[in-house]
Each structure stands twice: as C-alpha cells, then as structure tokens.
Amino acid sequence: MINMSGKHVLVITPHPDDAESGAGGTIAKWSKQGADITLVVCTNGNKGTSDRNISSEKIAKIRRTEQLEAAKVLGIEKVVFLDHPDQGLTDNDEFRKELVTQIRENKPELVITIDPERKWIRHRDHYMTGRVALDAIFPYARDYLAYPDLIEAGLEPHKVLKIFLWGTDEPDTYIDIDDSFQTKIDALYCHSSQMSSSKEEGYARLSKRFSEHGPKVDSELAEPFKLITVRG
Fold it and tell me: Out of 3.40.50.10320, 3.10.129.10, 1.10.150.20, 3.30.450.20, which CATH number does the structure's domain 8-229 have?
C-alpha cells in the first residue's frame, strides 16, 4: 500500500462530478492519510442539464458551487477551474499548456485522471481530458524546452511518477474504499443538479458496482484503475 502522507496528488477531471464518480473514494482515502490534493476541473459543465428553463450561464455557476462543496467533503486542498465550455475541449496547445502549468506548479508525484481509451462510445471531453493530460505529463511537463516561457515564469520541469486512470476498460489496480465509500457518496451528491436518483438509491447502485472489485484487494468495495508508472 502506498504511504500517502505528504504526497502531492493532482486530479484532472473533465467535468464537475466526474472525479467523485470515478475516484472519489480513493481521493477521500488519500486525503485522510495526509496527501495534499489539487483538483483541476477542465470544463464548466455549462451543458449539463435537461432543464430548458436553466441557461448555460446559470448551470455553470451552479456546478462550480457544487464542485467546491464536493471538494470540501473529499478533503481536497485546492480547486482550479479552467472554465472551458462543456463539449468544447480539443487537443490543442492552449489546453495542454494549461495542464503542464498545473503539473509544474503543483509538482505531483501522482496524477489521477480519466482513461481516454474507453471503447466504442465515450464523451468527447472525457477522451480529450485523458489524452491531453497524458501528453502533458509525458513529455511536455518533463522537458525543459517544451514551454520556455514557463521556465521564465519560474515553473521548472517536473516528472510525475505514477498515473491512476479511472473509467478504464482494462483495470489492473484496485483501491480499497470500504472506509471512504460514504464520503464518496456524500461528495457525489453535492452535485445535486446532476443526480436523478435519491442518495439512498445511489448508494445501493454504486455499492453494487464497486463490490465487483472489492474481493481483488480483500475488501467489500474497491475503485478500479489502470496504473501507469512513468519511466522516461
């Protein structure tokens, strides 16, 4: 088991609520163990409603407030909003540089983000977040000449050691969340604008999902990840 006390962790999520759904138990667990966790929210979620009486501007404000409340529940130290429009992420230099900046500024040993390679159907923002995050980690955040202006701003290259990908079709690492599952649920349901079921129904549904992975680490519940160890 990783000793998380004093570790720096960067969580990169496509939308408000994605990190809680995919990795909230792990984030809460590591925070309680003493990790210093920063959350980077890539989009503002301004298309995340079926209510035709709510404007994009209003739902974005609601989701920002919900995210800040959820972060407090999880014990996240810092939240960064990049404020890209929902469904608007692209693999470009602007987005990549923003993530490189966060990596160099926060100097995480570990990054948690979403697996971009989900098969058959996936949200485009999920794919773009995972893909650009992986590129930002390697090689851009590592290489001195990638963004010379960041060096001038005092942001030296940084090498991430491990990456945990949630939402993967090929998990190989499982984190016991028996003691943090309730916190995960509490944080997820801070995103009330996105919840179509009661907290009790959500608890039952998600406990069933994550119970499939628990026995792999001798627990009742576990979150699955693809673990990448950065060697270059």
Answer: 3.40.50.10320
